[in-house]
Fold this protein.
Amino acid sequence: MKTSIRRAVVPGVAALALAASLAACGDSNNASSGAADSSGASAASGSASTDSSTAPAVNNSGTLTGGGSTAQGSAQVQWATDFQSKNSGTTITYNQVGSGAGRTSFESGAYTFAGSDAYITDPTEYASAKKACGADPIEVPDYVDPIAIVFNLQGVKSLKLDGPTIAKIFAGKITKWDDPAIKSQNPGVSLPSTQIQPVHRSDDSGTTQNFTDYLSQAGGSAWSSPVSQTWPTTSGLNGNGTSGVVTTAQGTDGSIAYVDASKAGGFGIVSVKVGNTYVAPSADTAANDLAASKVDPTAKAGQLNYKINRTSNDPKNYPVLLVSYLIACPTYSNSGVASLVKNYLSYIVSPDGQASGSKASGAAPLPAGVSAKATKILSAIK
Amino acid sequence: MSTLTETQPKRMRSRGQAGDRVFAGLARGAGILILVVLAAVFVFLLVKGLPGFNASAATIGQGFTSFWDVGWPLLFGTILIAVLALIISVPFSIAIALFIAFYAPRRLAVPIGYIIDLLAAVPSIVFGLWGGQQLANSLRPVYSWLGTHASWFPLFKGPYAGTGRVGVTAVLVLAVMVLPITTAISREVFAQTPKLTQEAAIGLGATRWEVVKLSVFPHAKSGVIAGVMLGLGRALGETMAVVMVYSSSPRVTFNVISNSSPQTIASYIANNFAEANPDKRSMLIAAGLILFAVTFVVNFAARAAILRGERRMSR
């Protein structure tokens, strides 16, 4: 009985969904064509178009569900709003569940795309993503955010530190603010003998992963812990999420912490040694560093996985940055979904989308070269 | 037990009252449903969490090599923080309950009772905000003093971490949160002590305090213990307030004013769940299973204490 009902209903629903998706998709293309010209975001898809703006959004039609990284969350909200206002009838949902959960949902098929603060490195995870897509998944950067190293020290607004010193501070090897290593780099700054209290993230985070990556590359022998999403040791103060770290650092004399640059207000900020000078975090310098980074040699055709250059000597580059990725499939069985994914993700990495997203989140827009490469990869989705 | 539930509906049916039958069915359904839900939670934790007990070092991170490396410190931290909270809140609870039941004039006792009950209704996230944003900062001078002058005491060994976001603050916030539960139950139990023995004690020339000591406490002991146990259950499982209030990591230490206070299971799970991959998730669920078991044992102990008390009172 049950199966016979299902047998009758399933094709019906599928047919309905397909019809609706074609209608909605054609609709979205029509609506976006004007906007697409200026943004260069969406390529026209060849799907059949019936001009029915009243088409109900059934199942997959005009609805796109993705999720993951909270770092790019506020930018995603902006992108979804932009895209929906240009394409009436589409609904974009981005669930800010965290990179790991986002990737898992993508691999299980619950999400059509994922946002992740790191490209997939775990072999088992990669295998299930590949299985979910039927091919190597697409991974392109869509969000660049400088990570500011901030401190709370009365009377001091900015400090200059090199990689090894920062690594020693976070490893607990330098414990006082008036340590000679800090003093020698900051002549003229009167440093108190306050205890240094490093504050780290207590939750797993892409910010931690990128920061420990910086420490291990730029810190030299001073940093021996692994690069990981979880802070590698159990010592020191911590806070849950960026806001938790900010609260803890604000409430602690002599604290030093790493936070998304957009949340660094009210703190003293560390300029990081690059080459022979010290560079402060900014959107431009972070984007420059990504532009100067190389793609991981193991990356497949549809992947722009950057090995971020943490040891640049160019004073235009700020090496402590977080790069967040979009993960999607190169092909989708439903052409309506495919064109929606293609159009939305292409909008995100387009110069327009990047400008809008960075305005909303305080992050850096993708460098033009990276944006062009990502657009090329995403435009091949079908 | 089973004969009781079977005979009752039969008698009702013979009277032919449909309403009674429906009501009995609904009540029985609700009772069974809650058991099913509890069993479902347990089965979920067991099935999803069992692989987590064999989690690899890479999954756990932070330099831990096996599940129990992190499991024991978390269990320790959970119990330490909860027990310290009780040590602070229980004397207050009993004093407040005694005040309401015996000492306060009626026009004062009733509003105080209401306010205490209201405290139980404040969501834990509000306590978290208050504790993390205000209380922690206000207590910094106190911790600084404790760190320099009371460092001989293991709990305040320090060194003071320049911050109020340490274990003691979590203990204090939890104490405030547990207070209304223990108070409400103690108050009820005190109110139930027989007037006769109290009057007898007064008749023998006992003072107020002697009345409480001789006739109220012996009667109320098991009830108060049950209230304390229920409070402990809340303290063990409290998550949001704890996460928002202090900085912690899984380690075995009594030092609750230094920069590395012991972490509770609930806060460990909350901190790590969002970005967890499937392996880590099952490890977190395994930690949840431990917490479930501990709270279950605590609540079971509370029930046992209540039962024993009831039996003694009916005697």
Summary: The longest strand of chain A covers residues 138-152.
